[in-house]
Design brief:
Number of helices: 8
Structural class: mainly alpha
Strand content: under 5%
Largest sheet: 2 strands, antiparallel
Distance between the termini: 71 Å
Helix content: 55-70%
Number of strands: 2
Radius of gyration: 22 Å
Strand order of the largest sheet: 1-2
Order of helices and strands: EEHHHHHHHH
């Protein structure tokens, strides 16, 4: 609704960029706080967060431009993200392998770190979706529901004057609930990496459902040669991520259960039989 929040002299402060910066600060703060409490090296963790943020941003931008080449008219347009122009799953495609590589380099416990990230990512993402709402990107389909939003005529991204589903706010709400779930689950996890897998599954389900209300269909389709226009790019990626995460989630849970059983068996054999007067 407000692409430009305010001006500093002749320089505009865009809502999308401001919310993105706030999202990074909040997410990084949560990760550093949790990591420090778990005894991780604060400086190395900060380096991982910084470089992951940079490379994930590039990945999200590249995927957007591949899907929407019509927005590029000059070299400057390649880097102009003030009013939007990022694809979330693009950040995952680049950020996850880069994250693993950095964690290995800095000798951080990778899966424990991903669990920490899973408590921060949903909250940061929710804040960035507010930026999408301010910019008018990621808009919804036309609707007559009482809570529909209408963007003004000077809105450069969303179709003006038409009541639309506020899909940005739908997703922000879903992400807050996912963040609540991952933060509550973190203390009850059975193995490192379980919280991050839970996050992937929950977000993939939520995103696939929310895509049904999205109206910006120019983002492309998932494997159109195979599925035609049955799945949007984000829906297809959601199915892939959810499927992989579910398999790994249950495989990891079963593996941990076997380890716990073996540990109990070894402990019982070391203690030996219990004497009758000690029973």
């Amino acid at each position: 609704m407000h692409p430009v929040l305010f001006w500093i002299g002749s320089f505009p402060i865009h809502g999308y960029g401001a919310m993105g910066a706030l999202a990074f600060v909040v997410g990084a703060g949560i990760c550093l706080l949790r990591g420090t409490r778990q005894g991780m090296d604060r400086e190395r963790l900060a380096d991982v967060i910084f470089w992951m943020a940079i490379t994930s941003l590039l990945g999200a931008r590249v995927v957007f431009l591949l899907q929407n080449p019509q927005y590029v008219h000059s070299v400057a347009d390649l880097f102009d993200m003030r009013g939007g122009g990022l694809v979330f799953y693009g950040s995952f495609l680049v950020g996850i392998p880069v994250g693993f590589a950095l964690m290995r380099r800095y000798r951080l416990p990778a899966f424990a770190v991903w669990d920490i990230f899973a408590t921060a990512f949903p909250l940061s993402h929710a804040i960035s979706r507010i930026g999408c709402f301010l910019a008018g990107c990621c808009y919804g389909l036309p609707t007559d529901v009482p809570w529909a939003v209408t963007f003004p005529a000077d809105q450069p991204l969303a179709p003006p004057g038409i009541p639309l589903h506020p899909t940005q706010l739908y997703e922000a709400g879903a992400l807050l609930l996912i963040g609540l779930a991952t933060n509550l689950f973190h203390r009850h996890r059975k193995f490192d990496g379980q919280v991050f897998l839970l996050y992937l599954v929950l977000y993939a389900i939520a995103r696939a459902a929310l895509e049904s209300f999205r109206g910006d269909v120019d983002r492309g389709w998932f494997l159109p040669e195979v599925f035609g226009e049955a799945l949007s790019f984000s829906q297809g990626m959601s199915v892939v991520f959810a499927g992989v995460a579910l398999v790994v989630f249950f495989w990891g849970a079963r593996r941990q259960a076997r380890r716990d059983a073996e540990r109990l068996a070894v402990g019982a054999s070391i203690r030996g039989p219990v004497a009758p007067d000690q029973a």
